Design the sequence.
């Protein structure tokens, strides 16, 4: 998986067209950094870009895990998802 495939952008489709044209002109991409942990997209599984903020897949799962565990007892399905994700990261 190339570094550019690791980044999911939530920008509007109009901006995406402009970005594709820009990428065609320059094949060199600067790393995208997670706004939460500071790691670049080259060191994480996936990166989601939003307007002025980025979050990596690991920070996303930590946030999801926190929200699930806030109820103290995760459902069996939620626990399966967490277990699968964290086993693949290791």
Sequence:
């Amino acid at each position: 998986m190339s570094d550019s495939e690791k980044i999911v952008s939530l920008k509007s489709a109009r901006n995406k067209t402009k970005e594709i044209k820009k990428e065609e002109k320059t094949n060199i991409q600067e790393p995208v950094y997670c706004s939460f942990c500071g790691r670049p997209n080259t060191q994480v599984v996936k990166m989601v870009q939003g307007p002025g903020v980025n979050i990596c897949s690991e920070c996303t799962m930590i946030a999801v895990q926190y929200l699930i565990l806030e109820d103290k007892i995760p459902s069996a399905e939620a626990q399966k998802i967490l277990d699968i994700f964290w086993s693949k990261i290791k």
